Amino acid sequence: MPLVHFFETSFGRVYNRRILLVSLEAQGVRGWGECVAAEDPYYSAEWIETAWPTIKHYLAPMLLQTGVESGRSCSALFRRVRGHNMAKAALENAVWDAEAQQQQRPLWTLLGGTRREIPCGVSIGIQNTPEQLLEKIAVELAAGYRRIKIKVKPGWDLNVLEKVRSRWPDILLSVDANSAYTLDDIEYLRKFDPFNLLMIEQPLWSDDIHLHARLQRVLRTSICLDESIRHARDAAAALESDACRIINVKVGRVGGFSEATRVHDVSRQRNVPVWCGGMLESGIGRAHNVALSTLENFRLPGDVSASKRYWKEDIIEPEVEVDAHGTIGISDAPGMGYQIREDLIRKLTVREETFRAAK
């Protein structure tokens, strides 16, 4: 699926997304899941070409041979496979969707959600010029988004923040480094403090908690951890060591809805807010993010923005829309709450495999 506009982080620039979808047929319903693994092993060691064979040779056979009673049963079933959280999440979330449809209830209520609408922020990648970035921020603020997040890296950080804050001194603003800095940059990172940021997301190594704790002790700005949080145990360790004051929950990164809700619960018990991060998902993954964001402790605007920000044509209908107040209303339709455009998926499909349970 070609992006409406390129998206650039400290990893590089993306113009298109190859997306791995899973559909699961069970007792007359079809559930859908999305593997959010990227085209390259930059955000994580997992990427689309590891997810495909992991699902094909291990996870799908496990699910078909053993079966599960609910989405919550998947994490225990898949535990034998180490890592590969994004592949696991694609299958588990499809089971959750199918389960909700079988029960004729919305997915968000099955997850334990309570919010009837969710506040939305927006993530804006690195642009060709600061002026182009300012133009994009102006467009998103006019569209009603409640929080602006900009990607940063050395050479595209303080100078950009100065221009943004000069024009909008009071907007809710955060930055995402995607591990672009090291602890050698500690004095430099302290220069972010005067910009009154909601948070600086994942400034240091993707596998680190300890050094983030050292950094948080000297920063006024709250650190938010993303890549470092692979499951609820990581969340507990980070919060007990004061490595962060906010946690980004990405359902694919932690292995599915079951673990995502555990991360949410660990954070809620410590009164630390969470928010839902995005991975340039299609409408299927986006609908799952909407459902997850209805849980009580998703207190900060997440990266759950409108379909049209990314895709000329999404694979769900209606497409995800954000109203003028920067919120998404929650559907009471069974399952994820959106209809799947299987005709468009078929048109876009470049490879496919089918697995069946033995009769």
What would you say this structure looks like, in words?
Helix content is 34%, strand content 17%. The longest helix is centred in the N-terminal third of the chain and has 19 residues. It is globular. Helix 8 links the parallel strand 9 and strand 10. The model has no long low-confidence stretch (mean pLDDT 96). The strands form 5 sheets. The protein has a 7-stranded parallel β-sheet, with helices on one face. A two-stranded antiparallel ribbon has the order 1-2.
| Uncertain residue segments | none
Number of helices: 12
Secondary-structure class:
alpha/beta
Radius of gyration: 20 Å
Q: Kindly state the mean pLDDT as a whole number?
A: 96
Fraction of residues in helix: 25-40%
Give the strand content.
15-25%
Strand line-up of the largest beta sheet:
6-7-8-9-10-11-12
The sequence of SSEs as H and E is EEEEHHHHEEHEHEHEHEHEHEHEEEH
Shape: globular
Distance between the termini: 36 Å
Give the biggest beta sheet: 7 strands, parallel
Count the beta strands: 15
Using brief descriptors, characterize the structure shown.
359 residues; alpha/beta; seven-stranded parallel beta sheet; two-stranded antiparallel ribbon; 15 strands
SSE arrangement:
Elements (H helix, E strand, L loop, with lengths): L1 E8 L2 E5 L3 E7 L2 E7 L12 H19 L7 H5 L6 H18 L4 H4 L6 E3 L1 E4 L5 H13 L4 E5 L6 H10 L5 E4 L9 H4 L10 E2 L8 H9 L4 E3 L6 H9 L5 E4 L7 H13 L4 E3 L6 H10 L23 E2 L9 E3 L9 E2 L1 H7 L11
Parallel strand pairs: 6-7, 7-8, 8-9, 9-10, 10-11, 11-12
Antiparallel strand pairs: 1-2, 3-4, 5-14, 13-15
